[in-house]
Design brief:
alpha/beta; Rossmann fold; elongated
Length: 587
């Protein structure tokens, strides 16, 4: 019920279409309800023909023809209303699905990286595509049956009461049997459908993982292990799906049995009424038709119980995703206008900073740092020492546990994340190319930038020459993986974005890791120009690239164990010298 109530909040936006759908449902149902009465009257007229004279027979035949004409008209009206209602229900359903998908995609933009890092990407994709699609199918079936079903149930019950109260009360007394059977079975199948939805998400996550890393899978001959994992998940999905469908499928035959009992009771009670003269043959026929129409909505709803249960289970997963905590600026009120200074000098201070991904496993403890405006800071150290984590804290991808990070006298938690991040230009080791032209991929760096500015940025990082050799130059369309470009070329495009952005502060996280040594020297000159008078942080494994840094931070186990320039650290003969000599033993 909680899920259904929440779904209604989305449907409220389409309230006028829903009102029209209900009116059409009423038209279709009422038209269909008149058909049994006219057929019953026609049967009674035909029965009276045997008792009538020759003159009266002709008149009675005209009555029969008129009744049949009205019946055909009622059928046509019912059919047209049903068709129009189906069109409107489709429109409502897919508008609701559109709104949910828009909200889900917007949610992804606001989720903290902690959530995205801790869950497979395929599971999130499954939420937005498979679960929403299953939800749409179930909702469409529900709309198609619900309105006409409610009107048909109350309409047929009212007409049966007007014809014969005793028979109608018998039907009413037997009705709860259908509800009890359907409720008992559906209650036990819901958890199975929820498990099915979760397992489907697990399967989608595995498929996404394997396809996205197919080169690694093949290079390590991991195909058989991948197939075994897939088969295991697929077997679990088959088992829970079979159980869910099997048990839910019991609903339809069980309720149909109850409905058959109702029909038999109506026939038996009506037959006695005809024998006693309290009911005509035609009205008995009408009652039997109404008995079928009365039970039909129950049969239809229980007939699609599988889809409905699946839809509700999928909706639960969708709403659980939408209810995840978003990335909030807890110390900045949403209704307060952002009055942060747009001119950033780049003075960064870290005081007693503590952070841990897992509260039981501290990573960074009591980290202190003072970076003056325009200084070039290099961060080095063994894998897992906290280099990239330090960058994540600067960008507020993660918030510190204790301490403070201050930029130009303002604690970063008192700044909006969007404002903070707009002051940093960031180039990562992993490249991201979106499905668009080369020009559009560069223009990501600066909103409203011109083509000429993008070309100048590409020239500055020496990407212009290879771009001009592409089939359509800057207008060449790239796919999402940037296939057709080398790893170094994709990295150059990412660097061009930052060059176009001209930010006051820079973060380079292994930015030249995919570029050959010769190109790296060219890019380094471009970076040196870009980093002039800008505070910059460079994470590097190749120590040759950071020899000219103003400050080199040597990290180990979440602590800065050494600090200074290249010459002083080599002269000191500590951990930095060991790292440096391990790369250049021949020196």
């Amino acid at each position: 019920m909680k899920t259904l109530k929440r779904t209604l909040r989305y449907i409220k936006k389409q309230i006028w279409l829903m009102v029209l759908s209900m009116l059409l449902a009423a038209g279709a149902s009422i038209s269909a309800l008149f058909i049994p009465i006219m057929i019953g009257n026609a049967i009674d007229v035909i029965a009276d023909i045997e008792k009538a004279g020759a003159v009266e027979v002709v008149g009675l035949m005209f009555v029969v023809v008129a009744l049949l004409g009205k019946t055909v008209a009622a059928v046509l009206v019912s059919a047209v209303c049903q068709q129009l209602m189906s069109i409107i229900n489709n429109k409502v359903t897919y508008r609701v699905v559109r709104d949910i998908r828009n909200e889900a995609f917007s949610k992804i933009q606001k989720l903290p990286l902690k959530y995205l890092d801790s869950r497979p990407a395929g599971e999130t994709v499954s939420n937005m595509i498979s679960d929403v699609e299953q939800f749409a199918d179930g909702m469409l079936l529900g709309f198609s049956q619900f309105f006409t079903g409610v009107i048909t149930i109350f309409g047929t019950l009212g007409l049966m009461l007007s014809i014969n109260v005793r028979v109608a009360l018998l039907v009413l007394v037997l009705t709860p049997m259908s509800f009890l059977v359907a409720r008992f079975i559906s209650k036990h199948t819901y958890e199975m459908f929820k498990l099915q939805s979760v397992t489907r998400g697990e399967q989608t996550a595995l498929i996404d993982e394997i396809i996205g890393n197919e080169k690694v899978v093949k290079s390590f001959c991991h195909e058989d292990e991948a197939l075994e994992t897939f088969d295991e998940i697929n077997a679990r999905l088959k088992e829970c799906s079979q159980k869910a469908v099997f048990y839910s499928s019991l609903t339809n035959p069980c309720t149909r049995f109850v409905n058959a009992v109702v029909y038999a009771v109506v026939a038996l009670a009506g037959g006695f009424s005809v024998w006693s003269g309290a009911l005509s043959v035609g009205m008995l026929s009408t009652l039997l038709c109404y008995a079928n129409q009365y039970t039909k909505p129950f049969n239809e709803i229980t007939g699609v119980i599988t889809e409905l249960q699946n839809a509700i289970a999928c909706a639960d997963r969708i709403f659980a995703f939408l209810d995840e905590d978003t990335e909030k600026d807890s110390r900045v009120l949403d209704d307060v206008k952002d009055n942060e200074v747009h001119k950033i000098e780049g003075h960064i201070v870290m005081n007693n900073v503590r952070f841990a991904y897992d509260p039981k496993k501290p990573l960074i403890e009591d980290l202190n740092l003072d970076v003056r405006p325009g200084q070039n800071v290099a961060i080095v150290g063994p894998t897992g020492c906290g280099k990239t984590t330090l960058i994540n804290l600067l960008m507020r991808f993660y918030d510190i546990v204790d301490g403070e990070i201050i930029i130009d006298g303002k604690e970063i938690r008192d700044m909006r994340r969007h404002t903070l991040r707009s002051k940093f230009g960031m180039v990562l080791q992993d490249t991201w190319i979106k499905e668009a032209t080369v020009l559009d991929n560069i223009l990501i760096g600066k909103k409203g930038a011109t083509r000429e500015e993008a070309i100048e940025a590409a020239k500055a990082v020496h990407a212009h020459s290879f771009i001009k050799r592409l089939p359509k130059g800057y207008d060449t369309v790239l796919d999402e993986d940037g296939s057709g470009l080398s790893a170094g070329q994709k990295q150059l495009l990412c660097i061009a974005r930052v060059m176009l952005m001209q930010p006051p502060m820079l973060i380079l996280d292994e930015a030249t890791s995919n570029i050959d040594t010769r190109t790296e020297l060219i890019i380094s000159r471009a970076f040196n120009k870009l980093m002039e008078n800008r505070t910059s942080f460079v994470v590097a494994h190749r120590l040759s690239t950071i020899k000219n840094a103003d400050i080199i931070l040597v990290m180990k186990d979440g602590h800065i164990i050494e600090q200074g320039d290249h010459a002083s650290l080599i002269q000191k003969g500590g951990f930095y010298k060991q790292l440096y000599m391990s790369q250049y033993r021949q020196a």
